[in-house]
Specification:
single chain; alpha/beta; Serine Threonine Protein Phosphatase 5, Tetratricopeptide repeat; 2 domains; five-stranded mixed β-sheet; four-stranded antiparallel β-sheet; 11 strands; disordered N terminus
Length: 351
């Protein structure tokens, strides 16, 4: 890790790259890349249905009632929260334009046998019927919805103003932490595959205070709307699993070897990556194997920044195969992983 005296600020440079300077032989560069979505929806899926499968079966009602008592759930809280979560997912799926049509199908008499847990998947006969009856190609199903809450109380000594003057008293504080848990599946009837099974959870904190415990707890009674709002956000968050996303990857590049490397470093720090690349390319023929290997490696870095992964792999291979640069061997694997990710991106973006 860089020392405090050597650590400098991040600089924005072209090609969506950031640099982190230090006193080492290498420095860090951050490159923004587009990663494939965690879930790949087949290109033939043009329409989607969203269902709510969180109604508890009759034989499990007693278990659910006990669960609600211990988790302090309000009347209809889970039911309304689940409905909001389904609506949030359906609305977000429509916004991202991946589908021609998204239908919010409601409950459709679907039930779950395991409150707070994933039940066994729906049968393919049931999935087929739902998709056929509603003219959709795939089914997004909310299969788990549960809220758990924990309440804590505390009393703090305060001075109360009264007509008789200031008197000592207690101010009561109540707080409630509510965890909204959801679980989703995506069914593809054409391939008979469950494309995804994934939980999403969010926490909400409520607080109140008053001159007695009842007054302090009063602020906790109106949490239903907040739970519904967070439930909708959880549905929106789940929709992001089918969307490619941008992230930052970290790479090392060499800044020492010859005076030219120090010059190239300064060019990189000002955002002149093309100028730095010109210098590195000259050093690829340096008589020193160490210097030439570092220069070839840096050429691979600039190629990745410019989106030229095939060329980046060639430079990395040359750096390792001809000059035994060990950092290049590790880099080759990173680049090949990115290549595989780009192939998956092409599939996800094909329509």
């Amino acid at each position: 890790m860089p020392t405090k005296t050597c650590l400098k600020s991040l600089l924005l440079v072209p090609a969506a790259a950031f640099i982190f300077t230090s006193c080492k032989t290498t420095e860090l560069v951050y490159i923004k890349v587009l990663e494939p979505a965690p879930v790949t929806i087949p290109p033939y899926v043009k329409s989607a249905g969203v269902v709510n499968r969180t109604t508890i079966t009759a034989q499990n009602k007693a278990v659910d009632v006990v669960d609600k008592i211990f988790s302090l759930e309000g009347a209809q809280l889970d039911k309304e929260g689940a409905k909001s979560s389904v609506s949030g997912l359906a609305e977000e799926l429509l916004k991202n334009n991946r589908f021609n049509e998204v239908k919010e199908l409601g409950e459709l008499d679907l039930t779950t046998t395991a409150p707070g847990l994933f039940s066994a998947p729906l049968s393919w006969e049931t999935v087929d019927k739902i998709c056929r009856d509603n003219h959709v190609d795939a089914l997004f199903s909310l299969e788990l919805f549960d809220t758990d809450s924990k309440v804590s109380y505390a009393a703090t000594p305060v001075t109360l103003k009264t007509p008789l003057g200031n008197v000592p008293g207690l101010e009561h504080h109540a707080s409630m932490l509510t965890n909204v848990k959801t679980g989703w599946r995506i069914y593809d009837p054409a391939s008979r595959n469950i494309l995804d099974e994934f939980p999403v959870a969010r926490n909400i904190t409520f607080a109140g205070r008053g001159i007695n415990p009842a007054a302090a707890a009063a602020a906790l009674l109106n949490r239903k709307e907040a739970v519904k709002q967070v439930s909708a956000q959880v549905g929106q968050q789940y929709a992001m699993r089918i969307i490619p996303y941008r992230t930052r990857v970290i790479r090392d590049y060499y800044v020492k070897g010859t005076d030219n490397f120090r010059t190239a470093r300064r060019k990189a720090q000002t955002g002149n990556w093309d100028g730095a690349a010109e210098i590195w390319k000259k050093e690829t023929t340096n008589p020193s194997h160490t210097v030439a290997g570092r220069a070839c490696y840096n050429m691979a870095i600039i190629c990745e920044i410019n989106g030229e992964l095939d060329l980046a792999i060639k430079w990395s291979q040359k750096s390792y195969e001809e000059y035994n640069n060990r950092l290049a061997l590790k880099y080759i694997n990173m680049l090949k992983n990115r290549q595989a990710g780009n192939e998956l991106l092409k599939q996800q973006q094909a329509e």
